[in-house]
User: Fold Vacuolar protein sorting-associated protein 52 homolog from Anopheles coluzzii.
Amino acid sequence: MAEAVLIGEQIEDDEVQEILKTGTDLRQYAAQIEKEFKEVENRSIDDYIKESQNIANLHNQIGNTSNILERMESMLMDIQDALNNISTEITSLQKKSVSMSVQLTNRQSIRAQISQFIEDMAVPEEMVSCIMDSPVTEKEFVAHLNELNHKLNLMKELNFKESKSSQDVSDVLQKLKIKAMSKLRLYLMEQIYKFRKPMANYQIPQNAMLKYKFFFEFILSNERIVAQEICNEYVDTMSKIYYSYFKSYSTRLGSLKFEEAVSKDDLMGLDDSGPKGIFSKTSSLKNKSTVFSIGDRGEVLNQQLEAPIIVPHAQQKFRYAYEALFRSEQYALVDNACREYLFVTDFFIVRGAQAQELFNQIMGKTTALLIKNLETYVQDCYDTIALFLCIQLCFRYQLMCHKRCVPALDKYWDNLHAVIWPRFEQVFRMNIQSIQDCDPTKFPKETGPHYITRRYAEFSAAIVGITENFPNELVSHMLLELQEEVKCFMLRMAAIFTTRKEQLIYLINNYDLVLGVLMERTRDNSKEAEAFRELLSTRSAEYVEEILAPHLGGIIQFVKDCEQMRDKEQTEELKRQERRSLQLVANFSANWKKSLEELNREVFLSFPSLLTGSQLLQLALAQLVQYYHKFYKLLTPNARAQLVNIHVIMIEVKKYKSNF
Assistant:
């Protein structure tokens, strides 16, 4: 029993374990199971025997089904063969369809080309009638002319290929071309002849020609000789018109010029104050200062640059400076030349060198006339400002032409510069030389601003103001030369005065005049203004020392001596200066108010400019207070007690403070 339990623990099968637990004999149980298997087998055999007929029937049915499937397979194979034949037929039909489609496309394409060719070659009766009878300005004529031009170009291509098809219509097209050319030539010639009518506004026929510019294009592409004839006629006509107009206009403008011309006697350094002899030549200008001051003449470069031109017969009562007349003349040329250049490039279909050549043929005589007139004026011109304004006008009008996309006048502007620049430089240097040749002893001894200084100030301000936007190295160099000569002239003039104070007064008055004019007319930071500002500052400081010397000379010298002793650490020597300082204190205390009054009177009598006098007085008073402070620090306590209180002096100094 114990052995059965041990075996049961080792066996995992639940049913076997259950049997073992009940204590059943395994041999008996196995025999029983074997018996049951036999019974089940026998019953199964009986079942098969019972169903044998059905199984046989099933076998027969399976056989029949297999036969049916074989027949279906045969049928499907036949269908597959039929489908293969159909696919072959479809492929063949596709190839035939593609071939027929290509044939159809080719026929349609050649049909369109042949139709277009026939249409291009055919000459409709309507075209013939319109070309022969209609006016050239009719829309129908222009449309048929374009069509005729197309047919003529096609005929040229066919003739080049030696095509026989063009021979059928060649005669008709040639006759139509000749008729059209005749009518177009007549129309364009009529428009050109309209330019020749007196007082004609040639812009009207020009606009009419531009409206039908295809006419010239048609003539140019079909008959170059006729096109050249029309072009030559236009060039000849317009050349004469422009030449006649500008010749008349320049002559009439010349009558509006100031009668008083600037001459060689109007140079900057020439003396116009001395007595004149019986045979001496008087100054050509009533007011010579206008030669060197620009006034409102510079407006020709600004507001008047594009102002309407001067109409001589309407302005007979007025007189103008040369640069104003030059501006009007050049602006008229720019306006006409730009319009003409744009017209010829558009109408005659030319570009680049061809356009320049055609433009020169039209405007060449006119520009040569204007250059010659300028040469005539320039050779006797001594008006440096007028010459320089003309140069600047050339620069500005050249830029204007470039903005209008007209480079045709570039050579003309270069020629004008070649005429004006040498004369401008020559006259400029003549003015410099006139300053060099000045003899200071021939001028009156006056400490006020010299008229040559004023001329220089006005002239320099004018040139600097003009060149602010268009600087030029040559002009800057000549201005520097002139500035140096004027400085030397001022020093030579100052040398004729016997005292240093008079020399300084003269220099300060003249430096101040130049600086004032430059600051008024130009930028404050210009090189010329900076140079004279530095000179004025240096001379002003020296002048202050000069005018303080009579009143504070002892104190100034005392301060300088004591500062030297202090720097050298000479203490004993400093102590011995007390007696000297007491005398200076007593003298200053007795006279300081009177000294202030005399300083004030002297300064304002010496300088015509109240602003300059006020600035110098304030500078002198500031220097006086500064020396007073230094003097106070160097005094002994005993001397300080006797000195006037600094606050009292400051109150008195404030009384001389100016409101300028």
Notes: The chain has 23 helices and no strands. The radius of gyration is 59 Å.
